[in-house]
Each structure stands twice: as C-alpha cells, then as structure tokens.
Amino acid sequence: MGILKIQEIRERCGIFAVVGHPKASELCYYGLYALQHRGQEAAGIAVVNGGRIHTRKGMGLVSDVFSRDDITRLTGSSALAHVRYSNVGDEGGIEDAQPITVRMWQGQMSFAHNGNLVNAVRLRTDLERGGSIFQTTSDCEVIPHLMAKSGLGDPVRALVESLPALRGAYSLCVLTPDGVIAAKDPNGFRPLCLGKLGGAYIVCSETCALDAVGAEFVRELDPGEVIFIQEVQSEDPGLPYAGEPVSYRIGGCETKTRPSLCVFEFIYFARPDSDIYGVNVHAARKALGRRLARKETLGADLVTGIPDSSLSAASGYAEEAGIPYEMGIVKNRYIGRTFIAPRQSLRELGVKIKINPLQRLVSGKRVVLVDDSMVRGTTSKYIVGLLRAAGAREVHVRISSPPYRFPCYYGIDTSSRGELIAVGKTEEQIRQAIEADSIAFLYVHDLEEVLGRRVGNLCTACFTGDYPVAPEGDAGSDGRR
Fold it and tell me: Which of these is catalytic: 13, 28, 173, 253?
C-alpha cells in the first residue's frame, strides 16, 4: 500500500496461540515475526507455567521487545502472542499492549484480539456504571468483564454466553491454565486459522505464520465459531500435547448475520504467501492486476508497483497488458515504520530515505504506477512527483481496488470521511489532485467476480457504505484493536 499509507490506513493486529508444545514461547516468537506486518508498535507473549500465566510485552517491533533471555524465561507448553498497532489518538500505552492478562473469579486468563467492536463504548459505559473498573482503553477488555458477570464458572461457557453481546469484528484467543479458547465473530471479518505441529495445535491470524514454524494447516475457523483446545499432560512431563479441538457456535448468529470477510485482507493486509479460505493472497492480487489491465489498452514503456503490497497486482497488470514489469521504485527495508517522525519536515525526509525511484530506469519513460488502494491520495501524489522528478515522461496511476469512500468500523484505522480523496470527486478530479496523466480503478463487481466466487461474501463497506453491522454511536473512537 505504499510508504505514506501508514498514516492513512492501518490494520489492527496479529494473533498466534500454541497449545501442547514444550517450546510454546519460542514458537510464538517466530510466529510473531511472521505476523509483524499486521502490527509494528507493540508485541506480547503470555505463557502458562505451573497453572499460572506469565506475560511479557512491550512497545516496538518483536525484535525490540524480546531478547533471547526473555524467551528462555517464558517456559510453558501453552502460550498466546500478539502484535499490535496503536490507534490514532490512543490514550493508552504499554497497558494497551496485548495479551491482556487478568485475574477473575473464574481464574487467571489472557486475551488477544484482532478487530473492532462497534458497541464497545456502550458496553464499557454500562459495565462501568455497574461497578466494573477498566485498566486499558482497549475494547478487548470488555470481554473479560462480560465473562465475569455471566455467573458461569467454566471459562468456555462464560465466553460462549458473552459473545452474543458483542457487535463488530473480533478474531479472539483466550489463554487459560487449561488451554486456549479461540473465537471468530459471526460475520468472519478477520481471518483466524487452525494448524497442527506434532501433538500441538496452533491458532493464528494467517497461514504464513504456520509455515514459519513448520506447522500443517488444518482449516479456517468458521464465522461464529468458538473452539476450545485443552492441553493434556502426558506421563512424560517433557511431552505435553493438545486434545482435539471442541467446537461451539455463538448463539443466534446463523439467522442474524452474513459472512463478510474484509476484502482488504486480499488487497493489502495479509502477506502474499498466506492462503485465506484456500485462496493464495499473491495469486488473488495478481488476478486483480490482470483484471485492471483488461479494462483498457494503454501505451506505456514499463509497469511498476509501490513496495510491497502492490507488487503482485503490478506484475499481474504487466503480464496481461504485455508491458515490461520493472522495479521502478526501491524500498530501504532496514528502516521500520516507527522511523517516520511526527513532524512533517522530518517525515518527508524519512520517506525520501525509505523509498527512491530508479532514475536511470524511469527517465524518459511512460510509466504505469500500480497501487493497491487510494485513501487520502497523499501517497499517490507523492510517488507521482518522485517519478516525474526522476524524469518520467508520463505517469499513469492504476488502482487495483475501488475508490475508498467510507470509513471502516471493523478494525482498520482510516481517516475521517472528509479526508478521503474519492468522496465527492470524479475520477478526473482525483487524477488532477494527484497530478497523474491518467487514473483508473477497479470496482466492486470486479472484486466480487475475481474473489467472491471462491471466497464467498466479502465486506466492501469502505467502497459502498453498505455496512454488514451498523455503526453504533461513536464506534471506533475508543481504543479499538
């Protein structure tokens, strides 16, 4: 999605849980590395040892938060890990980093969440008026409070009975002294999959994390499904294992909701080597690029994409159009997103250090610049300017998704609607705003035809305004995850 889009659109987080493996924390560590793209501002691991949960978390990248000694000290055979983005305007800091570990009358538990609850503000207000005290700004924290008020001593039953009160997006894992509970909201907005490694089970946000630890993919969790995986102690204490997952359904979800996987998982969020519902993300992005090329006949000398998420679509466009695909923009991969400073002058300098056009390649050429999406338009305008400064004769912008016109309430941090470039503008006006020679988008029916037949229903509310779950009040203004 480009370099500047870190200020325009950000996904919430990634989850990795292990049950029944003697090196659970080590698996979590490598799993978080594989999911680092889903959250780069905080990381945490919680491990069960001796019936108690021990948690280590901090601000920054996985490599910043954990040392080798940290992982060595986090001993146990069941664990839960999380990477996170902070919300714009977050009041919280390290206390909002997940997993969030709490002591309840049902026992000690640790919670990690991906998504956003549209009714979190109301739930939190009601709970506080009833005497609940919150320690974080995260909407995830309402879940243990609801479980505590359920009156049910079994954590699995308490969670299953509490989830119907939640509205919005959540892929959730709960670590207990007995194992892991995992749940996906009835719409299935965010991915959550099950894998197996020897006698252990793994639950994580993307299949690329399973590949990273050598685990076998089993299946995606269904929308509205809750599973409990219990740790089993063998006669050999060094060889724990996990029992078979037991599945439950969230009450009432069969008739009240429709499956609505976030289409941005394919467009931008997921790693290209991940598979979602059997569809490879890289192949899906290439197919979107091909679809974009079929819409026109454009004379150009080369096609390039903005590293990294646009590269698959750019290669698909180039192959379909018969135009050479080139690495027209180079990204410095040794500078993290946290390098981008808050002051505009420093931010611009940081971007110049982080990306650079290949001047000898683009000078005098007609360039097709493919990006995966356009939110405020600042990225596209900036990159168009870079290419022109490098001598590009023409710059034609192609976007492998529809115009982004509506804010997301399900776990994507986007600008307000007034800042979205496509609101109230024609394509010609957008072209003028970013100073390109031409511009073209895909549309919702393109996404549905390329992805929908294989994946099922998709949430495209950011393009259409048709929200599967209606926003509630000031949904999203709390510390959403």
Answer: 13
